Amino acid sequence: MARRRVSFFGLIVAASVSAFLTEEEFPWKPPGPGDLRSPCPGINTLANHGLLPRDGRNIDLEVLGEATALGYNMEHNTMLAVGIPALTTSTTGNSSTFHLSDVDQHIPQVIEHDGSITRDDKYFGDSNSFSHAAWGRALASWGDIEIIDFAAAAREIKARFEWGEANNPEFNATFARTGSLLQYALLLSAFGDYGNANMTLVRYWVEHERLPLRLGWQPPVNNINSTMNRLIAANISALWV
């Protein structure tokens, strides 16, 4: 049976003039002792470049919005889809701020989820730190490809969820599905053209939690927005069977 693919043709995406980023202005530094990080490579990367506070502490929506706009050319309302839930995990004593490590909260699940592409499930212990095992399974599922397209994304998610359901008796596939599709929305938008991400750029970003500026990358010209995220999710879901 032929599968229906959602077309991007004719969709007008608002473009914004994004600043030219350099390592000189926003140098990458790994987190130091006492610095906090999250299960999300995307926001960890922003902290490692100083776009978010390098200590990962006391972040409000204004700071998060400025960082995601500059680092990924992300629309403000799209940032809020993550930022507002993040505030509900806050341990700062101020309900308008959160620490990066707060979003590792598993019960109730808000942002952290099972079936992460780069983290182990909470069931196995540490869901906050980068997992070579989880990432290795993703690389194996993608195989020897240079471009991550919708088909590769669907193939990888399917294998990831099958592994989780077979090995984690507490695997929450419903919540994990949303988080996994949002991960791909960022990955395919920031390092591709809303559907074809450059594997070299993706690996550099994930494995170093560093913007691939030294490889010639710049934030996408067209902003990352909720409309495009939904279309990306729909295209992957159509192939995820």
TrEMBL record:
Keyword Ribonucleoprotein in annotation: no
Domain of life the protein comes from: Eukaryota
UniProt signal peptide: 1-19
A matching Pfam family: Peroxidase_2
Keyword NAD applies: no
Domain named Heme haloperoxidase family profile: residues: 24-233
UniProt keyword terms in alphabetical order: Heme, Iron, Metal-binding, Oxidoreductase, Peroxidase, Signal
Gene3D superfamilies assigned: Chloroperoxidase-like
Cofactor requirement: heme b
Record GO terms (molecular function): metal ion binding; peroxidase activity
Record family assignment: Belongs to the chloroperoxidase family.
PANTHER family in the cross-refs: HEME HALOPEROXIDASE FAMILY PROFILE DOMAIN-CONTAINING PROTEIN-RELATED, STERIGMATOCYSTIN BIOSYNTHESIS PEROXIDASE STCC-RELATED
Protein name: Heme haloperoxidase family profile domain-containing protein
Source taxonomy: Eukaryota, Fungi, Dikarya, Ascomycota, Pezizomycotina
